[in-house]
Design brief:
Shape: elongated
Radius of gyration: 18 Å
Largest sheet: 2 strands, antiparallel
Strand content: 25-35%
Structural class: alpha+beta
Number of helices: 1
Strand order of the largest sheet: 1-2
Amino acid sequence: MAATPFPTLRLPVRLTIGGHSADVGTITVNGREQVGPQIADALRAAADAYDRVTDEEVSTDAAPR
């Protein structure tokens, strides 16, 4: 019996904040490895990217709302 290949999974990522949603990318998972650590790494990378973007957008000159 031939071995069944392990799939490569592509999981869409949708970010929703309040009433706004955006498709922000895809997490690609190697079916030959444990899934949990791969997803955790992808989410950490997304959090790091979010931190970098928000740090750039924050200005001390902005008036409080």
